[in-house]
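Support reply, case 0932

Customer input (verbatim):
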Amino acid sequence: MRKALFLAACTLTLGACAAGPDYRPPAPLPEVETGAFVSSAPGTVAAEPQDQWWRLYDDPVLDKLIVQALAANTDLRVAAANLRRAQAVLRETGAGRLPSTDLSGSVAYGDASSVAPTGTGGSQWAYSGGMAISWEVDLFGRIGRTIEAARADRDAVAAARDRVAVTVAAETARAYGDACALAEASAVARQSVDIAQRSLDIVTAQERVGTAARFDVERAGAALANARAALPQVEGARQVALFELAALLGLPPARVPAEAQQCTRVPMPATAIPVGDGQGMLVRRPDVREAERRLAADTARIGIATADLYPRITLGGSGNFFRNDQVKGSDSFSFSVGPLLSWSFPNIAVARARIAQAEAGTQASLATFDGAVLNALKEVEQALSRVSAENSRRDALAEAVRRADTAYGLADRRYRAGAMSFLDLLDAQRTLVEARAALATSDRTLASARIDLFKALGGGWQSMPPAADE
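Our regenerated output:
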C-alpha cells in the first residue's frame, strides 16, 4: 500500500511534464512588410479602421440590413452551430482530467442454483452492487495536450464563424449597393430612351413635311430600339441583386425589403475610409487567426502522439458487494486499489508513425498560415489598386458625360436650325447615351471595389454576438 501511495505522489509531481513541442505563435515571413500598405487610393486615410465599417456610409437602411443579416443569415447559423459543437468537444476533453466512475447494481429473483450455486435450493432474492473509480495520471501530458488541441480547434472554429460574418456583412452591403446602382442605371437608361424618342419624333415630323428622308426616320427608330434594349438587362440585374440580398438576410425572394427596392442612388461613404496598416490588418483578419489556431492545434497533436511512446498510469479502486436470502450474515464484499500500468513498448512503430503524421500536418498548417498572411496582404493591395483605378476612371467618365451632354445640346439646336445633318445629331446622341451608361457602370464598379476593400481589411466580425460558453 505504501508503494502504491509513493508511486502516486511521484507521478503527481512529474505530471507537469508534457511531451512534444510547446507552441509558439509564428511570426510573419521575414520578407513580408507589415507596415504601411504599398498602394493608396483617394478617399482613404491611414487611421485604424473601425469595427462597424458600414456606418461610414451614414445610411440607416444599410445599417438595418447588415444587423438583420448578422442575426439571420443561414451560413452564419451553420457557423454558430459548429462553434457550439466545438465548445462541447472542449468540455468533453476537459473532463479527461477528472476521475471516471462506474456504478452498477442488480436485484435478482430465481432458483437458487442460478442465483447462488452454493445455496440450499429453492427460490430466493439476490442483491449485488459495485463501484469503480479510475483516474489517469497525466504523467507525460497526453491529456493536457489533448485539451490544448481541443481549445485551439474551438478558437479556429470561432475564427471561421467570424470569417463568415465578414463575408456576410460585405456581401449584404454589395447586394444593396448593386440594387441601388442598378436602379440609378435604370433611370439613366430611361433618360436615354426619352432622348431617342424625342429625336425620332423630330425627324418623323420633318419627314411628313418633306424636309427629312425616310432613311433618317429608320435610323432614328433603330437608335430608339437600341436604347430600349438596354433597359430590360438593367432591370433584370437589379432584380437579381435584390433576390441575392433577400437570401443573405435569410428571407425568401418574395420578402425583399421595401427599403432596398426604393433605393435609387449608389451608397457613398460619408467620410474617408480608414485603412490602417498591414500589422493591424493581420490581427483583424479572421482567416489569418483561423490558420494560426489550426497550427496551434496541430502542434499540440504532436505532443499527443509523442505521449504514446511512454507508459500510461491509471490510479483506481473498486468495491463489490453480494448477498442473497440463503446466506444470512455472510454477505460478500471485496475491494481493490492500486495503479494500472499500460505501455505498448517495445512495439512503438505505430506511435512513431503517428508522430510523423502529426509533424507533417503541422508543417502543412504552417504553410497554410504563411499563405493566409500573403493572401491577406495581397487582397488589401489589390483592393486599394482597384479603388484608385476606378476612381480615376469614374472622374474621367464624369467629365465625358458633361462634355457629351453639352455637345448633344449644341447638336440638337444646330440640327433644328438646319446647320447640321441628322447623322451628326445621332452620333452626338449615341455618344451621350454611351457616356451615361459607362458612368453608371463605373459607379457600381467603384462601390463594389470599396466593399472589396472593407472585406479585405477584415473588420465587422466584432459585432457578432458571442456564442454560448464563448
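We compared this against your earlier run and they match. Two observations from our side: The domain at 18-98+141-311+348-463 is CATH 1.20.1600.10 (Outer membrane efflux proteins (OEP)). The chain has a mean pLDDT of 87. Please reopen the case if you see a mismatch on your end.
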